[in-house]
Amino acid sequence: xxDTYTTGAEIKAAPRRLPPEVNILFVLVGIALVFxxxxxxxxxxxxxxxxDRLKIMILQVSVIGIISVGVTQVIIAGGIxxxxxxxxxxxxxxxxxxxxxxxxxxxxxxxxxxxxxxVPIALGLMAGALVxxxxxxxxxxAKIPPFIATLGTMVTARGFAKxxxxxxxxxxxxxxxxxxxxxxxxxxxxLAVAAIFHVAMKYTRYGKFTYAIGANQQAARVxxxxxxxxxxxxxxxxxTLAALAGMVVAARGQTAQAGMGxxxxxxxxxxxxxxxxSLTGGRGSILGTMIGMVIFGVIISGFTFLxxxxxxxxxxxxxIIVAAVVADVYRQKKRTKKS
Amino acid sequence: MLDATLSTTGAQGRRHYDGEFILEVDGxxxxxxxxxxLDNVQLKIRPGSVHALMGENGAGKSTLMKIIAGxxxxxxxxxxxxxxxxxxxxxIDALNCGIAMIHQELNLMNTMTVAENVWxxxxxxxxxxxxxxxxxxxxxxxLFASLNIHLDPLAIVGxxxxxxxxxxxxxxxVSYNSDVLIMDEPTSAITETEVEHLFAIIRxxxxxxxxxxxxTHKMNEIFEIADELTVFRDGxxxxxxxxxxxxxxxxxxxxxxxxxxxxxxxxxxxxxDVILDVQNLSLPGVFDNISFKLRKGEILGVAxxxxxxxSNVAEALFGVHxxxxxxxxxxxxxxxxxxxxxxxxxxxxxxxxxxxxTGCFLVLDCLENMQMALITRDKVNGAGFVQQAEVTRLVQxxxxxxxxxxxxxxxxxxxxxxxxxxxxLIARWLLTNPRILILDEPTRGIDVGAKSEIHRLITALxxxxxxxxxxxxxxxxxxxxxxxxxxxxxxxxSGFLDRAEATQVRVMELAAK
Lengths: 339, 513
Ligand SMILES: Nc1ncnc2c1ncn2[C@@H]1O[C@H](COP(=O)(O)OP(=O)(O)OP(=O)(O)O)[C@@H](O)[C@H]1O
Ligand SMILES: [Mg+2]
Hints:
heterodimer, A: ABC transporter involved in vitamin B12 uptake, BtuC, two-stranded antiparallel sheet, about 0% strand, disordered N terminus, B: about 525 residues, Rossmann fold, about 30% helix, globular, binds adenosine-5'-triphosphate, cell membrane (chain A), transmembrane (chain A), transmembrane transporter activity (chain A), ABC_transp_permease (chain A)
């Protein structure tokens, strides 16, 4: 195929336009500055100039941040995952039962000796992957809407967590296991997970297919993407990350309870949405979600810093989530309508 | 100034407007990031006339129509309706004023019935303000009867063909009883029979005093239906002339600014061995007993009326909706075509008919859209990383070849003009280097210049031994490009014609048999 056609002008690959995440970054800076000012007015001190506060803030959100990295992928693929909070609880219990030191009475397996940390971690991740496999299969093959399918596993996984020890907490993990929750480890794990999936979503086939399926599932199928397989992969990734988050919380508190991770799925979804991930699928990024997570953290620690009552905090959190969705809808509209 | 929100529903009709122009557009400018879509354009529509709007892909036709219909707001300029300045903020305002529009892309709710789609937002209400479904059904039946459309008002839209959906859009637009009716490429997906049908409807509306704006890339339609025509080029107004005073070449010159030499640059090339052998393919209720052979280097055209099952056969060949019985042999190998992956493994490519439903990833950018099929099996390293530099280079090469008009490859596809989206989808499949290329309405919505470019590309591919199966509702295209024509009628093959013996009349005879 040569010179038989007239060739049009060279088309530039990418423009010199700012990435969409920059907008969200501005929001973050704005919110942080508001708290800074309010801090000086009401508390007589700086909000941002405290390393300790910033550390705590990041620690608070990084566990849910890990979940949010997975949830982001699910939402970009056009789905939703409500089961992550319950997976946190169920896997925390399950993994801890293999991570206990044998000098204490073991809650579930009395005859086990101390196991190296890798065993409970691997088992926990596998349990998470199994939940993801079930979610994915229900959605991709049984064609059950994601909302319903993951609602089902959400309830079931929570039930499992309670049944596992008949409601008893499981405490005293080995030092090795506890290490994954120590100090700034949750933040390190979050950063590693976020970096891996940022690269995966941007530069690999896995990411491209995820966006394609969320943008137009029919077109993805016709383009030769195995939509069913891919959806299963995405749900497995999401549930496995939720499992990882579950083990991190358990390790940090050195205990697991059946009620752990309650409503984490909603916070994770909120972080993604605040970070510009669109619930209609095909749009958003891990980077955006990371910024969304920090916004979330700033707001929570900002309110605590201002000594705002916890009840108000929850209400305002709700308002912020809705505001993020409204902002997303508005952004989409503006793109086409007025430009 | 006419305040749109004060008027009642669309049916009031200003039918006896005596001024010269029912709709006037003056000095309109519209800019999008990186493109000036319209620059100081004008358009004047007389009541009771058909005004064709012509221009290359991306010339700004749809953008102006969307401004008139209230989808976009202009940056500058004004729109006058019946002599009064019009301020339209939303599509509903436009409808209330008496301006209805058939959009270039289908805008129907697939999960709802035909009747619900037609009367959306205007449903007849019965007791307690609930929707009176029975009356809605009869209203639809009456509307369809008056337009001579044969469709079940209670059918679910998602089950219908693209052409049938297009007819629903037309009926819906007519039902508003508007003074101005805008039709943005209404014939890009329907066959001659429906086109004739549509023209009958248009002539009737014209006689009733409606001003019609008609956008098409099919030249012959202009001389058949248009009274006047306006040409845009690159967002600028070129001129307005009576259709009777210009020739086809004049129009092309105004549109393109250069000469287009030949329309169907088909080159005879050696035809090789059979590569695709289809035997007794059937899908109950859809198509029956389809058998044909396709050879390397051959272009097999597929003609037929709407609902003749042409697209369904293509979907079965590509594994999108597999056939229930019958055999497919590719290069002598028996292939059970269960999914598009299987088809692509055997070197097939399939450009679908409906670019919005099964083609474009509207919210993704041009690059992603073009490379998606390629990277499902190629240009990815062992770790799953896309070899982006190389893929981008290929994508740039093809977008230049096909003259895709976009500010850059990072532009979202939903911001491209319809014809440019189509070019992009063609590029998607050409990038996969197929051995067998199935094209369903390949030049749908593509302008004359680009069309001959695409025809040239198809011929060049055939010259390299690619086997092409080309479904098209445009008879001149089928006749001009095919080595052989397969005609379908109600899910069966009604005959084959060789290039030498094929004429418009013989194809139509077989299609209507
Ligand atoms: N929402 C949008 N955002 C950005 N650019 C746009 C948008 N809509 C249209 N454009 C650009 O404006 C130009 C004109 O587009 P338009 O759709 O009006 O073309 P057209 O004449 O209808 O072409 P076609 O024959 O292909 O349908 C194109 O370059 C297109 O990319
Ligand atoms: Mg257009």
